[in-house]
Amino acid sequence: MMESFGADLIEQLRRNLGDAFQAVSGENLDWGALLVQVLGQLLVSVIYLGVFLGVYLILIAAIRLGLGERRTKTPLYIQMRSGLRYLAGLGALVVILAQFGVSPEVLKAMARAGFMVLGFYVVWVVFRRLIKEGTSRYRMDPSIRQLVENLFAVIAATLAVVTVLAQFGFDVVSIIAGLGIVGIAVGFAAQSTLSNFIAGITLLIERPFRIGDWVTINGQEGKVVKIALRTTWLRTRDNIFTMIPNDSVASTDIINYSAEGVTRLNIPVGIAYKESAKAAREVLMPVLLAHPEVLQGAGMEPRVLLKSLGDSSVNLEVKVWITPDNLDVRPRIMADILEQMKEALDAAGIEIPFPHLQLFIDDAKGLKPVLEPFYRLRG
């Protein structure tokens, strides 16, 4: 029963296709001739594919032999190989479409459009290499190179699309006018995005910070990991990523801890009034000089200074310098130094006070009148 059902279904499909073909062409459908024609076209297409593939492989082998094995890993060889692969694919596509009856006008338009796209690609590769060499020569920020590459890529892609459409008879002037109207509408609808975009360009030009710097922006401290066209990305010490709009970044105060290289840490320490600041300094200095992360260069020697006289303590301030590489672990270094200083002060018998209050009452006898009867009883 299933075999009979399948045969009836195939016969019905064949009859329906034949009726549809006859309604369109006015002729009866010859299944045998159609099958022979399709198989012949597919066979010819496979042959053409093999020919173009063989030519591509021969050219690649010749280039590899001429350049040598070491130079085949360079970007120039990779781009050349991509171009040859693109030309082989374009030629195969045009020839195969010709086998299926595509008009010569369309084939010519496809060939012209394909060569123009290849031309835009070559211009893009050359321009990108010039940007890379220019930014390396003048030591420009990598984010500026990324910005210029993105802008040129958008412009080149837009021109390429318009040029390709023009080869197929589309009205380029109308397309450009339509894009201009759409651009104006998008500009009004995305004022905030455009504001962040312009602010991002300003940040890349002025460079108040670079990727890898430790900064404080809008009260948020973190390491700059990315400067995009719309936002700036920070990674906090808790490994939390924060994206701040560039418009907000450009209009607020920015504190850059990495801009000048080495950074000084100010660590407060309090001792009791009865203790000597000089004695505390003599105890703390060996701790600072022995710490591996504390710099000892000229002008960056660690110091212990008397900062102020507080309500309950003599306030000292320890000043040490660290390298930019240690900014990532600055809290750990501060905690480590503070712990070692406390142990050294405890070992030296120097008191670290806590806030306390002494109350003095003039002409007061205290608790003596209350406790005096108990003293007599005990006597």
TrEMBL record:
UniProt subunit comment? Homoheptamer.
What terms describe the molecular function in GO for this protein?
mechanosensitive monoatomic ion channel activity
Record function comment: Mechanosensitive channel that participates in the regulation of osmotic pressure changes within the cell, opening in response to stretch forces in the membrane lipid bilayer, without the need for other proteins. Contributes to normal resistance to hypoosmotic shock. Forms an ion channel of 1.0 nanosiemens conductance with a slight preference for anions.
Where is coiled-coil annotated?
Answer: none
The record places domain Mechanosensitive ion channel MscS C-terminal at 266-352
Residue span, Mechanosensitive ion channel MscS domain:
193-258
Q: Which residues form the Mechanosensitive ion channel transmembrane helices 2/3 domain?
A: 150-191
Where in or outside the cell is it found? Cell inner membrane; Cell membrane
What are the UniProt keywords, alphabetically? Cell inner membrane, Cell membrane, Ion channel, Ion transport, Membrane, Transmembrane, Transmembrane helix, Transport
What are the annotated GO cellular component locations? plasma membrane
**Family membership:** Belongs to the MscS (TC 1.A.23) family.
Q: Which residues cross the membrane?
A: 38-63, 84-103, 109-127, 147-170, 176-205
Q: Name the source organism.
A: Marinobacter flavimaris
Q: Which InterPro entries match?
A: LSM_dom_sf, MS_channel_1st, MS_channel_C, MscS_archaea/bacteria_type, MscS_beta-dom_sf, MscS_channel_2nd, MscS_channel_C_sf, MscS_channel_TM-2
Membrane topology, as annotated, equals: Multi-pass membrane protein
> What is the protein name for this chain?
Small-conductance mechanosensitive channel
Q: Does the keyword Cell membrane apply?
A: yes
